[in-house]
Amino acid sequence: MALTLMFILLFVLLIAGAPVAVALGLASLFFISTTGMPDMVVLHNMVNGINSFPLIAVPFFILAGHLMNTSGITNKIFTFARATVGWMYGGLGHVNVGASVIFAGMSGAATADAGGLGNIEIKAMRDAGYDTDFSVGITAASSTIGPIIPPSLPLVVYGVIADTSIGQLFAAGILPGLIMALALMAMVSFYARLRNYPRDDRFSLTVFVRSFGDAILPLFTPIIIVGGILSGAFTPTEAAIAAVAYSLFLGMFVYRTLNAKSILRVSMETIETTASIMLIVAASAIFAWILTANQVAQVFARELLSFTENPTMILLIIMLIVLVVGCFMETIAAITILTPVLLPVAISIGVDPVHFGIILILNLMIGLLTPPVGMVLYVLSKVANVPFERCVVATAPFLLPLLAVLIVLTFVPGLSMWLPVLLYR
Questions:
Q1: Which range among 68-77, 193-202, 293-302 shows the weakest confidence by mean pLDDT?
Q2: What is the pLDDT of residues 37-60, one digit of tens each?
């Protein structure tokens, strides 16, 4: 009974607009108080929840992304992407996707991509004669590549909660991220032919070499991060620190676009973002402990398996649950709540925890593009200066290729597991 009331209180608080960390904490405290457990259990589990070495990577990856945006590196990435694929039909749409793939190897966050590159991309597309709706839609959809291609903040959090190798998760995200990019570029090509969108001049080797020269130092960032992790040179946490050090080096000594004032501002933004994430993780640790102690995951798995033992049907049900939750809940919060419940079910039908992590994150990335909580849509509404409702309509067609990729990745696990098996197993 107390467990049921805990869930009811959680959903009431979330619907009432309470912060996720507060809703999780109060619901958990209610359960502990009504069952006679000592209140010290709350603090004990909160501390244990964030007392994790891999979580140190979170603030450093956030800081690295902010530094990249502030130091003007996003402009160089966009220029290089334009020289590389801008000659294709619907050129700037392809540039939009290509720039997101490159930036994904630096920031690991969809909102950082939408806020940093989005401003540059939407302005360039508008100036070139592209429809505002198309510009906003492809910018929103391409930003979801960021948390799939390493480094990825959601994958770090999932790895900690699921007790799964973050290095393997990062390796598993590379090929799915590239598949997402190809699917979105196919959608761009379709729209370009349908609406006769322009393209840049023919491919110029001179322009390409010049833009590559300007962008070569920023392009080393994903090589340092991903290459260092996959080669075993350093851990994901050490890679995050290396990314910050390299970003500071570029901003302060190479491009000289960072100063003490901008670094202080970026640091404060990082502290604010990190604090909100850590509060959610700490509060969810109590919630997850209660679920584990009361065998909620096992009960859920048993009920689901009694409904159907078909692995395909179970995976489809899990996908539907995550998609619905992603529409109403922020990504990190959804990961912390859903992982302890759904992962045991997935494992029971033979799904690898690494593969499940990619499925879960991609599901939740699609949630970033759907109302009412779609954070990317709110960011682009501000960046593009268009109403939120218009952003929703503009992004809707681009959900189709993302959903198609999600289905393919779910039922063809080799696409996500090939690299982790090759490198780690």
A1: 293-302
A2: 776 777 777 777 777 777 777 788
Mean residue pLDDT of the chain comes to 83
pTM of the full predicted structure? 0.83
Q: How many residues does the chain have?
A: 425
Report domain extents, the chain.
12-424
Average of per-residue pLDDT across 174-192: 92
- State how far the Cα of 70 lies from the Cα of 270, in Å rounded to an integer: 13
